[in-house]
Request: fold
Amino acid sequence: MAPRQRFVKYLGKIHNPSRTYEHTLQTRFNVVDNENYTRKTPFKEILKDIIAVELFNHNFYFKKFYFNDKCYVDLTNLKVYDEKLTPCVVKLNEGFICDYSLNKLFQYIPNHDDEMKIGKELASNLLNVGIKLDPTLFVLLCKKLLKEKVY
Reply:
């Protein structure tokens, strides 16, 4: 029996910018030490910086929000839209950044104390947005989420 899919919500037209750069937090934001950076930086700001690096890698520019010639990503209001101000989706790596995936990542609130499950859920949310983190940075991010209980 074939898997069944059902349509839940239209998220917008998909834009697929090519990856042309290999920026990192170190090269883009002058982060010298990931441990020090994650200790001093608020959790959601780290998420914004990580997403920003990936947007820069896909030819986005920044001026109040991230943009390229076809779409805009507003990480303050968690919105993704095109030049007609219509919601859209940006394919980043193996994920998609859109209003829904951004909100799911930034509004993530674990409803249990299982650290492994929380780590898997955070990883899933990051991958859904198209972010693949260095394992060391991911562990530091998870520790920050668990230690500070930012949720």
The radius of gyration is 16 Å. The longest strand covers residues 88-92. Residues 43-57 form the longest helix (15 residues).
